[in-house]
Amino acid sequence: MERYESLVIGLGAMGAATVYQLAKAGVKVAGIDRHHPPHTLGSSHGDTRITRLSVGEGAPYVPIVRNSHRIWRELEAVSGEALFEQSGLLVLTSSEDFDPSDATDFTLRTIALAQTYGIEHEVLDATQIRQRFPQFATVADDAIGYYEPGGGFVRPERCIDVQLKLAEQHGATLYKGETVTHIRSDEHGVTVTTDRRTLQADKLVVSAGNWAGGLLGAPFDQLLKVYRQQLFWFELEPGADLVGKSPTYILTHGRGDSQNHYGFPALPGEGSLKVATAQYHTHSTPETLDRTVSPAQEREMYERQVQGRIAGLTGKVVKSAVCAYTVTPDHHFIIDQHPTLQHTLVASPCSGHGFKHSAALGEAFAQWCMHGKSELDLSSFSLARFNAP
Fold first, then answer.
1. In the chain, what are the domains?
2. Do residues 209 and 12 make contact, with C-beta atoms less than 8 angstroms apart?
3. What is the rounded CA–CA span in Å between residue 121 and residue 111?
4. Is the pLDDT assigned to residue 225 strictly greater than 70?
5. Rounded CA gap, 45 and 338, in Å?
6. How far is CA 232 from the centre of its chain?
7. What is the spatial distance between Cα 249 and Cα 50, in angstroms, rounded to a whole number?
8. 3-state SS string over 264-319?
């Protein structure tokens, strides 16, 4: 039976970063994944993922993403791969019922956080938005925008691939295509059984994403829900001058989850622009998730989110994809020691906004394995909040 200092279950966004940081630090580490990452069966694919320093989801995320930006650049220097594109990030609200005093508005929250933490940004009015970003020519006259020049996107598949390759170069062992069937612990460490082998370790990090609820049992099986998400690449209109002029963006055009979407720059040579939403009303399981996108769903996306809102796009979908978010009741992370398994850190789920933080969290989880604590304050993500009266 092979024994390691640390084991990592799940080699997506968080797991790949963790196993890389542990291996780089000289820790004898192994990673396990039921598939062959990077793959399209979890949450960490789709070519591009947004990153931004002013994280409107909450202040505890700001120091995490700052560290991630540093690590992406370090990884680029080591690997020679382009991982982080600072295309600029535009967060904007253009809505008939926009209330400039509404503290819950995502754009206003983003502006407030940037002001608090000294993040470089500009606040734009409707005229400035239209002049600088031609795909938003139809924004309302009272629209407001937040522009962060340091924001943009990371390449999820590349990031995972680079970190796993570097981890192996530093001596990590990766068990791919293996499904974990059992985890037990005692005062001496943890024992993980897969469908092929049994492994032991001093420390275990579980970053199993969509599969975390079923693997970890109570209370995670009740706290975590898996939601199917759709990604669309809409064709550029002939003559649309968007390449090099379109930012990564998040657009709010009304109240409620269905009244917003996000998108990415039109990239050279692709002839399309990626647009997506997040939905939290219909949940699924990793095993039953519908991984196809129908023509009716393509039409619905265009009519609800693109038509009349984003200039320069046709209704033709060049490419589509499905991914899944694993989400907590309050849409924030869970990062905490397992309540019954000793020596085990639960580092999942991401609740749909985790990739931008993954590089730094991998570093933090490696610190926990080595020292019992991390330099980042991750107390906001503890399980205890779900037991509060």
1. 2-68+155-224+330-387 (3.50.50.60), 89-149+225-327 (3.30.9.10)
2. yes
3. 8
4. yes
5. 27
6. 17
7. 8
8. CCCCCCCCEEEEECCCCCCEECCCCCCCCCCHHHHHHHHHHHHCCCCCCEEEEEEE
Please tell me the predicted confidence (pLDDT) of residue 348.
Answer: 78
Give yes or no for a contact between 277 and 301, defined as CB atoms under 8 angstroms apart: yes
Beta bridge partners of 193: 182, 198
Q: Counting Cβ atoms within 10 Å, is residue 187 exposed (0-12), middle (13-18) or buried (19+)?
A: exposed
pLDDT at 389 over 70: no
Cα–Cα distances in Å, from 64 out to 181, 216, 376? 32, 25, 7
pLDDT in tens, 245-275: 999 999 999 988 789 999 999 999 999 999 9
Span 74-82, mean pLDDT? Answer: 98
> Would you give the DSSP letter of residue 53?
S
**160-174: average pLDDT:** 98
Phi, psi angle pair for 280, to nearest 5°: -130, 30
Q: Which two tokens stand for residue 369?
A: 């394995």
CA–CA dist 249, 151 (Å, integer): 10
pLDDT at 142 over 90: yes
